[in-house]
Write a structure and sequence with these properties.
By secondary structure, this protein is of the alpha+beta class. It contains 3 helices and 4 strands.
């Protein structure tokens, strides 16, 4: 579970991350990232923690599926908090395909999106239009 200090809860904070932050989309999710912002609601705090929030709409599936996706994303994000700059706001929006995706697929898309936002991955790897996260999927992946 994500620690309380690292949870994004206020509507204004979600709006700040989505409207003023950068965005990286993947087939299963979209990550909105606002780097190093300070929290105006907690004056005097010198180093604000990274905070993350999740948006999982009814398009993802029924309540059981939505909650499963949220739990998986919270767990994945908890393990990646130390890679992000202090004071950052992150909103992870699950897309409809995330309900059928397994843990590894969500992890791969989240990692690729975060790398792109942090400047670690180019937008396109070559002229074929595949990004680094897509390369493993097109070669002998499991059929659905």
């Amino acid at each position: 579970m994500l620690p309380n200090d690292n949870r994004l809860r206020r509507r204004e904070d979600f709006a700040t991350a989505v409207r003023r932050g950068r965005r990286a989309g993947r087939p299963l999710l979209v990550v909105h990232f606002r780097s190093g912002t300070t929290d105006p609601h907690t004056p005097g705090e010198s180093v604000p923690p990274v905070r993350a929030g999740f948006v999982v709409s009814k398009a993802v599936g029924v309540a059981v599926v939505r909650n499963l996706v949220k739990r998986r994303l919270r767990h994945l994000m908890r393990d990646r908090l130390d890679q992000l700059p202090a004071g950052s706001l992150v909103v992870v929006r699950a897309l409809p395909g995330s309900g059928e995706a397994d843990h590894d697929e969500l992890a791969r898309d989240l990692d690729t999106a975060l790398q792109r936002l942090l400047g670690g991955a180019p937008r396109r790897s070559d002229s074929s239009g595949e990004t680094p996260g897509d390369l493993g999927r097109s070669q002998g992946g499991s059929a659905r």
